[in-house]
Amino acid sequence: MSRTVxxxxxxxxxxxxxxxxxxxxxxxxxxxxxxNLDLINEINVDEEIIDISVLxxxxxxxxxxxxxxxxxxxxxxxxxxxxxxxxxxxxxxxxFDEFSEVxxxxxxxxxxxxxxxxxxxxxxxxxxxxxxxxxxLEQFFTDFNEALYGHPKFKDDFAEQVxxxxxxxxxxxxxxxxxxxxxxxxVGKTEVxxxxxKCLNGKKKFAKINFGNYSTESSLSSLIGSARGYIGSEDxxxxxxxxxxxxxxxxxxxxEKSNSTLFNxxxxxxxxxxxxxxxxxxxxxxxFIIVFTSNISKENFQNRISPExxxxxxxxxxxxxxxxxxxxxxxxxxxxxxxxxxQAEYLIDIEENLRAxxxxxxxxxxxxxxRDINKQxxxxxxxxxxxxxxxxxxxxxxxxQEISNVSWKRxxxxxxxx
Length: 418
What we know:
Blueprint: E1 4-8, H1 13-22, E2 26-29, H2 31-35, E3 48-51, H3 61-69, E4 77-81, H4 85-91, E5 98-101, H5 105-112, H6 118-121, H7 134-147, H8 152-170, E6 177-182, H9 189-199, E7 207-210, H10 219-224, H11 237-244, E8 249-253, H12 260-272, E9 274-276, E10 282-284, E11 289-294, H13 298-304, H14 307-312, E12 315-318, H15 324-346, H16 351-361, H17 370-396, H18 408-417
Parallel strand pairs: 1-4, 1-5, 2-3, 3-4, 6-11, 6-12, 7-8, 8-11
Antiparallel strand pairs: 9-10
Helix pairs in contact: 1-5, 7-9, 15-16, 15-17, 16-17, 17-18
């Protein structure tokens, strides 16, 4: 029996994969077997197709390809990305007897019959801002404005950016909405992405990548995965984070700490709306919002980020420190948020007293950002709980305690002491 490799067009890959999935056949990368040759003896050729695209990433491709592929006694179906055809045909000329193309009729038919939907079969569905109805969008903006404190100009600009994005995305002219937010630590940059996630009703993990961990030359391999059989996951961190979340928003924190290799990678991501792994697999992030944050100044932004990448960002904004009045308003904002949670959990109303207590206890001029203020709010809130609620509990006496002999106020205090 001749050994054949079939080439597929990249845009057809997921339809082909989905069609084979309906037949109970999965596609696996040959790197699975390159790392552990013993697995070759366990392969079921009726249930697996081997994709050899990754072999073009090996420095000694011909040697590795011959060593691995010649271990297969049975003849599984081998496939490869057509963009790598010239290299594969030459380097593996002693391995394969025939080079041909995938028959599109074998999988396009099943797609046209409505039996599969690529997004459902291949990729997990993300909640995206482009999918909201007009009424849902207005509710999103209402919730977002409440969730993100301060920065009124940004909120107005953001709403305008989103509305334009939704229109041009439908016209297939705008794949990803990108925001680049600059400013000192603790002024609310990362909270933008978290608020989008929350207001799109995210239930799973929030997708965040900290580029402070990606400053070395091997950063790209860590981010998108290594194709050379290193021990560990074939996926890089960014692919795992996107797959684990259920909302179409991605936060890239401390973006300026990375290097030109990753900058160039995101040039392509923002243009194509797709993330490509080192294994040649893609995740379509059309409709996503990517929030890039950085502590650099406007001047350093010009020097650190290339003109090509700067031009790719849809919106750039400098987040500034809050004034004392805004800081006091932030305390009131947090009091309302905390009080609602306490009311829901313990059926007690502490908002008015807590507001007066915190505004008296916290000198806002001593703190430069919301992160430090929030830490102080938590410290003072524990003091408020201990000083006022515990003393009030003692005054009420034993007869008002619960059957369990632990009152709701005692449980309330224990909750914050854990």
